[in-house]
Fold this sequence. Notes:
Layout (H helix, E strand, L loop, with lengths): L1 E5 L7 E4 L9 E10 L2 H7 L10 E2 L4 E5 L4 H4 L20 E4 L2 E3 L19 E2 L11 E5 L4 E2 L6 H4 L5 H10 L6 E5 L3 H12 L3 E6 L4 H9 L4 E4 L8 E6 L6 H7 L1 E9 L20 E4 L5 H10 L9 E5 L3 H10 L5 E5 L1
Parallel strand pairs: 11-12, 11-14, 12-13, 14-15, 15-16, 17-18
Antiparallel strand pairs: 1-2, 1-4, 3-5, 3-9, 3-18, 5-6, 6-10, 7-8
Bound molecules: zinc ion (2 copies).
Amino acid sequence: MRAMIFEAVGRPLRQVERRTPSAGPGELLLKVHACGVCRTDLHLLDGEVEIASPPRVLGHQIVATVVPDGDAEQDAGQATEQEPGGGAAAAGGRRVGVPWLGWTCGECVYCLSGRENLCLRARFTGRDIDGGYAEYTVADERFCFPIPEGFPDLQAAPLLCAGLIGYRCLRMCGDAERVGFYGFGAAAHILIQVCRSRGQEVFAFTRPGDHKAQAFALELGAVWAGGSDESPPEELEAAIIFAPDGSLVPLALRALARGGTVVCGGIFMSDIPAFPYSALWEERVVRSVANLTRADAEEFLALAPRVPVRTTVSEYRLEDANDALADLRAGRFSGGAVIVP
Ligand SMILES: [Zn+2]
Ligand SMILES: [Zn+2]
């Protein structure tokens, strides 16, 4: 099969031919139909988040169909495809999504208290386990989720990280009526639709001067869009920071009403500059969100078709994965990027 592999920090992904993997006990062999690109992939490429044992296939927003036992070698590239949701759970051909959380121990204090996103021995798809920038991949069946009907493969891919982890961030905002998004990429373009369906107002902050992203936010129903250096017209009750820029934390705090919360949604952020205690005073909160739980996945994938969430995606061929990553870094597309093997 073809795969794009990470070999070392600072080097582009390289296309290789490798043996199609085989599924062990409790695992599924998956034929990848689409895999979303995520900012975390840039942090992995840049070494800001470490890959302990390269080479590694990146990609943790995988939409795939299950290959029945033994079929992969006979007909690699033409695995049986059935209607989504058709057949019993164990049948081949069903369509599933694989997110960032790829394995948890089930035994540590976090797993035992409903916080498996914090599992001490967690393994992550596309970091510790080979991911979806390949024609086939293998995943732990317990971390494969049915993709809701009505979402074509490409449109479903961004739900699996941008949507899922974004939704966990939004949950941390409670019932805030006015929510700020700092960075208007894949996650924000999904969450704004969830917010609107609940009557929450969204204020979109982009890089100063990024009028294209501001227009995209307004098109999706933001009540206000501007640069991250601007003050919103009203005080916010919560803000989510998607951009990996620590200098946004004090800016977001200053945009908050008393008692408001700033949620940092990324896995990596540059250092947060010092700020006066008065910015935090009056019960303002700064917190991070890490990873996801299987309960988050189930809740969000059930919610997405009810909103209904519509994703905007740019498609790239597998061999063009480096272009997709470069375009994400440069902010050259609106919404999400999806790689199609
Ligand atoms: Zn991600
Ligand atoms: Zn654990």
